[in-house]
UniProtKB/TrEMBL annotation:
InterPro entries in the cross-refs: Nup186/Nup192/Nup205 (IPR021827)
Subcellular location: Nucleus
GO cellular component, one term: nuclear pore
Membrane-spanning ranges: none
Key word Transport present: yes
Stated name of the protein: Nuclear pore complex protein NUP205
Family: Belongs to the NUP186/NUP192/NUP205 family.
């Protein structure tokens, strides 16, 4: 064989090998850079979440329009945690922040408006505690369901998400006890508000009924997909769904009354789609 041909062939192989090594090095550099960026983002998000946790727990009472601020943080956290671009570690941090926001919203709605020792709180003050608009509540529930259904998950993430789901439905409970006749409520409200207490009471009741129906519809549509996610102990999600329906319908003893099979003995899948 001609030595010159061998030399040219050897040089071509060396060039090809050099290009392959350079391409491999560039890929490794991009991969390492991506890991560094993810680590930096995770570090920054961890710091942000710690600031938010402290601010929400200790400083939120000094701010005006607290419910709107909590909703915006909660809604943004759920949106980010449900994104396919969000890593599992970041999703866990975001869900924990969302859970703190939801807990603070619930406290603001159900704790005594004037404090435990207040003697000036009226029945009207308790009933008139502002709740997030129905549209905001629907946004929270929809994005939370999307976050639960994301492919990548962990036990810690699921625990936070299910706790948040349960806390959400507790937050959406009506302040008006269905067992208390409207005439009794009207009597309690008499003299606390001039002329408009009946209209306010009716409006609150209608808005609450609308919210409950929308929550029920969303849950009915998505519950089977949630039950199909095999990530927790056998039967836990079924009990969670039953607990949520108990919150929505306090006097419910069986899901059979809503057209669903009862939970008897071994938990079973609930055919709610369709």
């Amino acid at each position: 064989m001609n030595p010159q041909v061998n030399s040219l062939s050897g040089e071509a192989e060396m060039v090809g090998l050099r290009e392959s090594i350079q391409q491999l090095l560039r890929s490794c550099w991009r991969y390492n850079k991506n890991l560094e960026e993810q680590a930096a983002q995770l570090h920054m998000l961890t710091g942000w979440s710690q600031i938010m946790e402290v601010s929400i727990s200790r400083q939120m009472s000094f701010l005006e329009n607290r419910s709107q601020i909590l909703f915006e943080v909660l809604d943004a956290s759920l949106s980010s945690s449900a994104s396919p671009d969000c890593s599992l570690k970041m999703a866990i941090i975001l869900t924990q922040v969302a859970l703190t926001c939801m807990a603070k919203l619930k406290d603001g709605r159900f704790l005594c408006p004037g404090g435990v020792n207040s003697d000036n709180v009226t029945c009207l003050d308790i009933i008139s505690v502002k709740q997030l608009p129905n549209g905001a509540c629907h946004s929270i529930l929809f994005k939370l369901v999307m976050a639960i259904l994301r492919h990548e998950t962990s036990e810690i993430s699921r625990r936070c998400q299910y706790a948040l789901l349960l806390s959400y439905f507790q937050y959406c409970r009506s302040m008006l006890d269905p067992d208390v006749p409207s005439s009794v409520l009207q009597y309690l409200l008499h003299g606390e508000h001039d002329g408009e207490e009946e209209l306010d009471l009716q409006k609150i009741d209608e808005e609450q009924a609308e919210l409950a129906q929308a929550n029920f519809s969303i849950l009915r549509k998505e519950v089977q997909a949630i039950l199909d996610v095999d990530d927790v102990g056998f039967g836990i999600k079924e009990l969670l769904v039953l607990k949520i329906f108990k919150i929505l319908f306090p006097h419910l003893r069986s899901l059979k009354n809503l057209g669903f099979p009862r939970f008897e003995g071994t938990p079973a899948r609930i055919p709610l789609r369709g």
